[in-house]
Amino acid sequence: MKARRDVFQAIADPTRRAIIGLLAQQTLTLNTVADNFNMSQPAISKHMRILTECGLVIIVKQGRERHCTASFKALEEVEQWAAQYRRFWTSRLDKLEQLLDEPES
């Protein structure tokens, strides 16, 4: 049975995060993306397949080239997950600040 890939698996890899970073700046061809990394074309293709399966990259074929664009909609899931911890730590640090600001008796 094939495991479902999710956005967390995609961003867990530093190469995939770097690819997303490149594509966040501009649309690039698949070959141009590959030129930015010291790895084989099949390795880049594997990373791109994972990114497209997770909805982080959209690839559009135009003639002989495939143009890659970042899609940040899938990152909303990550943002929601991180937000719960941001709220937790903000609350805890606010309480700590209140304790530290209280005058000693």
From TrEMBL:
Residue stretches making up the HTH arsR-type domain: 1-90
Keywords tagged on the record: DNA-binding
Pfam families linked: HTH_5 (PF01022)
Database matches in SUPFAM superfamilies: Winged helix' DNA-binding domain
Protein's name according to its UniProt entry: DNA-binding transcriptional regulator, ArsR family
Organism this protein belongs to: Chitinophaga ginsengisegetis
InterPro entries: ArsR-like_HTH, HTH_ArsR_DNA-bd_dom, WH-like_DNA-bd_sf, WH_DNA-bd_sf
GO molecular function: DNA binding; DNA-binding transcription factor activity
